[in-house]
Amino acid sequence: DASNGHGQASSSLDCPADDFRLWCLGLSGSYRGPATYSKSRLEEARVTREKVLRFLVDGEQWLKGIKSNNDTATSSWCAEENNMMEASTRCQAACQRAFLGLSFRQDDNKNFDFNGAAYLSAIVVLSEAGSKYMSDMRSSGRIPPIYAVEQSLDTLRECLSIVGFSDHTTRAGLAEKSNDNILGGNEALTEELVEFRSTIRALALSEVKGGGSGKGKRLA
Asked: How many whole angstroms separate alpha carbon 56 and alpha carbon 48?
């Protein structure tokens, strides 16, 4: 549970709509092809989103702990911080490439289509790297600079926001905001799938044609 020991109730992090969005993004297959919805795949999406939430929530609590102890002034920058910054940079670059359809191999013949699986993979990799970094710092007893984790959290929230995740996910660990859920049961889920997949693909293709950066457009 991403909220254990941090005072943020798990119910405030639960969001079936965002679990569904994550499934649409990276677990439902290519946006050019059909998608088969199943409860097991949605459960996989929930577990995957929990990995991301764990870093977002734990990261904010970790930062608050260091700031409250006024330890940042004497912190020294080490190789671990360089590695964390590089992980953040790689995530941002990988998400941009995936958004623009540039992360497929040439022989995949995907015609520069949005690669949701690669986008999701980059997000998960950064989340896991951030969680491991904080665990290593706790074990070492060293008080590190906070900028590397701050930058990684900002990068992660931005990448999640770009592809339409609600505040339940993008602001996890921050002040609670939003009440975004899918209402109407299975019929509404189906409608959400069609609209979300179509909108993401159309936006990605328009960015490719226009030579855009893939940033600045948030999906509701």
From this structure: 13
